[in-house]
TrEMBL record:
Residue ranges occupied by any Major facilitator superfamily (MFS) profile domain in the UniProt entry: 3-379
Membrane topology: Multi-pass membrane protein
Record's keyword annotation contains Transmembrane helix: yes
Transmembrane segments annotated in the record for this chain: 69-87, 99-118, 130-152, 158-178, 244-267, 274-293, 299-321, 333-351, 357-375
Organism: Paenibacillus pseudetheri
InterPro entries registered for this protein in UniProt: MFS, MFS_dom, MFS_trans_sf, MFS_Transporters
SUPFAM superfamilies: MFS general substrate transporter
Organism ancestry: Bacteria, Bacillati, Bacillota, Bacilli, Bacillales
Major subcellular location class: membrane
Keywords linked to the UniProt accession: Cell membrane, Membrane, Transmembrane, Transmembrane helix, Transport
Pfam families per the UniProt record, alphabetical: MFS_1 (PF07690)
Intracellular or extracellular location(s): Cell membrane
Protein name: Multidrug resistance protein MdtG
Length: 395
């Protein structure tokens, strides 16, 4: 538990730092002379360079543990932010965002693997993942508004410098506090134990199991696409002298909605498949409302959208834990991060290209409905087979 508390602290500081940039980056790029299409590519390039980092992280985290990669991601990302404070041209910002995307690609697989390895009980793992989501959301509740406030007081250069030093300090703290060999906390079953467990495993044809498992990796792709669309379009849709502050407040309301559902720990007792389906539907309806019902306050829609996200992400984490198992969680979360990186690249790029023809929010709605349709029907047995090991009660 002590390791989890330390990790939650570092995650809070890291997520605070990263989310504080969301309402700032688009106006900063515009101040450098960038247009909507270039901004879409800039945001997408950050996610595209996640891919090589995710591919490396999956193998390296399983082999060497999480600590060194958590420290590397935080310190390197902080150094890049210090350089970003002195950017003069849009292309400089694009290159630094690409570099930042690569170094931060190691952070999520390393943290998720460390948290999942702290227990072998499904309920406890679900609680750790919910804790990860709560910490993430707490940081994202206050950080967008805080980032906008810092910009108003210190300007763009002062904001990036402050956030950069905060990341570096967090990385140094992680070096002295995170266990060096966290990968050994959860060990694979011995041969004798695995023999005893064989009769309890559901008899799933290998081809069907692999097919459904690969299908589930489309979920983070489409979800990340929709998030990329939101982070691209929301700052551009805000006008006036207080546009940065209003964007920060709206993103904080989004995170506040997620915090409400993440705090409902009893949801961990429900199967991941049902939670995923309900959350996808809620997110899709929210994006449709953003695209079509302009009389509904944007703040209210974003709160509901955040509540759906708070249900979705712990459920997806629990599902991928069941797909990975001991010794392969780093690779599993790496594949999940790759899918999210591809989605975060495709979302803003598509929104930037199609913004003059169709509302980007409607694109996000279509993507989420496709993700919902791709879920295996419950009556086929595939969805229940994948989650048959799920135990909603404490062991």
């Amino acid at each position: 538990m002590k390791t989890a508390l330390w990790l939650y602290l570092f995650l809070f500081l890291a997520f605070f730092d990263l989310h504080a940039q969301y309402p700032v980056l688009t106006p900063f790029a515009i101040s450098l002379g960038a247009g909507p299409t270039f901004i879409g590519w800039m945001m997408g390039m950050y996610s595209l360079t996640h891919l090589p980092g995710n591919l490396l992280a999956g193998v390296l985290v399983d082999r060497n543990g999480s600590r060194r990669y958590i420290v590397f991601s935080l310190v390197a990302a902080g150094a890049i932010l210090l350089l970003q404070a002195h950017v003069q041209l849009p292309w400089h910002l694009l290159m630094l965002r690409a570099a930042s995307g690569f170094v931060l690609a190691f952070l999520s697989p390393a943290c998720m693997t460390l948290l999942a390895s702290l227990s072998s009980d499904a309920t406890e793992q679900g609680k750790y993942m919910s804790g990860h989501g709560i910490v993430h959301t707490l940081a994202s509740v206050v950080s967008p508004a805080a980032g906008a406030f810092i910009v108003a007081k210190a300007g763009y250069s002062g904001t990036f410098t402050t956030l950069g030093w905060l990341l570096i300090a967090t990385g140094i703290m992680a070096f002295f506090s995170v266990p060096a060999h966290s990968r050994h906390i959860l060990k694979p079953l011995s041969s004798a134990q695995s023999t005893l467990k064989v009769p309890d495993k559901p008899s799933i044809p290998a081809k069907d199991d692999d097919l459904v498992s690969k299908r589930y990796y489309l979920l983070p792709f489409f979800v990340s696409c929709s998030q990329g669309v939101l982070f691209f379009e929301l700052p551009l849709s805000q006008t006036g002298s207080n546009s940065i502050l209003s964007t920060g407040i709206l993103l904080s309301l989004l995170s506040l909605g997620a915090l409400v559902t993440l705090s409902m720990l009893f949801l961990n007792r429900l199967s991941p498949g049902g939670r995923i389906a309900a959350a996808l539907l809620g997110m899709a309806i929210s994006f449709f409302a953003l695209a079509s019902f302009h009389r509904i306050p944007t703040a209210a829609i974003l709160f509901v959208l955040g509540a759906a996200k708070g249900v979705l992400f712990p459920a997806m984490a629990s599902l991928f834990i069941s797909l990975g198992g001991p010794g392969r969680m780093g690779r599993t979360f790496s594949m999940q991060s790759i899918a999210m990186s591809l989605g975060a690249f495709a979302g803003p790029v598509a929104a930037g290209q199609l913004r003059s023809f169709v509302s980007p929010y409607f694109i996000a709605f279509i993507l989420l409905m496709v993700a919902l349709l791709l879920l295996p029907p419950k009556n086929t047995g595939k969805l229940s087979n994948l989650t048959s090991k799920w135990n909603g009660r404490a062991a």
